[in-house]
Design brief:
Layout (H helix, E strand, L loop, with lengths): L1 H17 L2 E6 L3 H14 L5 E6 L1 H9 L6 E3 L4 H8 L8 E6 L1 E4 L21 E4 L5 H12 L3 H4 L3 E4 L2 H10 L3 E5 L17 E3 L8 E7 L7 H9 L3 H9 L6
Parallel strand pairs: 1-2, 1-3, 6-7, 6-8
Antiparallel strand pairs: 3-10, 4-10, 5-8, 5-9
Helix pairs in contact: 2-9
Length: 249
C-alpha cells in the first residue's frame, strides 16, 4: 500500500512541473471540462490546469494520502465534507453542480414502465457505478431501493469503479445502465435518442446529487487555485454545466 501511495505521489508531483494547479475531478464532469477550462482561460490565460479524472471515492482517498491536488470537484458533498472534517480544506464544500441520473441502453426500450423496466426478463444485466466509491452509484442504489425492486434485480447488477466506466459497460457489455445525464453530451453519444435509448430516472426516487468543490489546505496561498475555485461558483460556469445536463445549483 505504501509503495502504491509513493508511486501515485511521484507521478502527480511530476505534473506540478508542467501545471500551475492540479484539480481532482469526478469523472461525470469529464465532457464539460474542456468548455470550463476554455472559459476560465479567457479570464486567466496565464494559468495552466491539469485535471485528474476518477471516481470521487478514489480521488478523496488519494487526497487523504497526500496527493498534491489543489482543488477537489466531487460528485457529492459527503466526501469533500469528510476532507473538511479532517482539516484538509480551507472551508466547507460548496455546491457547484447538481447531477441527474439516466437510464441508457444500446437497444430500444419501453421507458414508459419507468424503473420497473428493470424487472423485464429480457434485461439480464444492469450496469451501475460502485455505491461504495461513486456517488452516482450511491444514488442509483437509492433509486432501486426506493422503488422496492432491489431484491428482484440484484443478481443482474454489474458494478463499475466509476460512472465513466459504467458508461463503457452500458455501451459495450450490459443490457442497460444507470449513467450521469452529463455523459450523454459527448459527441459520440449524439446517436442515442431520448425515450428510445435513454430517459431521466424519476428524481423522486433519489436525493439530489449535489456536487461539492473544495479548495484544499495545501493551496491556501495559491492565488491561481483560488481563481479557479471562484470561477466554478460563477454564473458562467453554472451556465456551461447546465448546458451539459446538470441542474442549476
Amino acid at each position: 500500500m505504501l509503495k502504491r501511495i509513493i508511486f501515485i505521489y511521484c507521478i502527480l508531483t511530476n505534473y506540478l512541473i508542467a501545471s500551475d494547479i492540479i484539480v481532482a475531478v469526478a469523472s461525470n464532469v469529464s465532457y464539460a471540462i474542456d468548455d470550463l477550462e476554455k472559459e476560465f482561460n479567457k479570464l486567466h490565460p496565464e494559468i495552466n490546469i491539469k485535471f485528474i479524472l476518477g471516481s470521487s471515492g478514489k480521488l478523496s482517498a488519494q487526497i487523504v494520502h497526500g496527493a498534491p491536488y489543489q482543488l477537489f470537484m466531487s460528485a457529492n458533498m459527503k466526501l469533500p465534507k469528510a476532507l473538511y472534517d479532517r482539516g484538509l480544506t480551507t472551508a466547507k464544500p460548496v455546491v457547484y453542480a447538481q447531477g441527474m441520473l439516466c437510464y441508457l441502453s444500446n437497444t430500444q426500450q419501453d421507458f414508459s414502465q419507468g424503473i420497473r423496466l428493470l424487472l423485464d426478463e429480457d434485461i439480464k444485466t444492469i450496469a451501475i457505478a460502485n455505491p461504495k466509491t461513486a456517488p452516482y452509484g450511491e444514488a442509483t442504489l437509492e433509486a432501486i431501493l426506493s422503488a422496492g425492486i432491489y431484491n428482484k434485480i440484484k443478481h443482474k447488477l454489474v458494478y463499475a469503479e466509476s460512472i465513466s466506466q459504467t458508461l463503457s459497460y452500458t455501451i459495450n457489455a450490459t443490457d442497460i445502465g444507470f449513467i450521469a445525464k452529463s455523459l450523454l453530451y459527448s459527441p459520440k453519444m449524439l446517436h442515442y435518442k431520448k425515450g428510445i435509448h435513454y430517459l431521466d430516472v424519476d428524481i423522486k426516487l433519489y436525493r439530489p446529487i449535489n456536487q461539492g468543490i473544495v479548495l484544499l489546505k495545501q493551496a491556501q496561498a495559491n492565488s491561481d487555485a483560488k481563481a479557479f475555485y471562484l470561477f466554478m461558483q460563477s454564473k458562467k460556469a453554472k451556465q456551461i454545466l447546465t448546458s451539459y445536463g446538470y441542474l442549476a445549483s
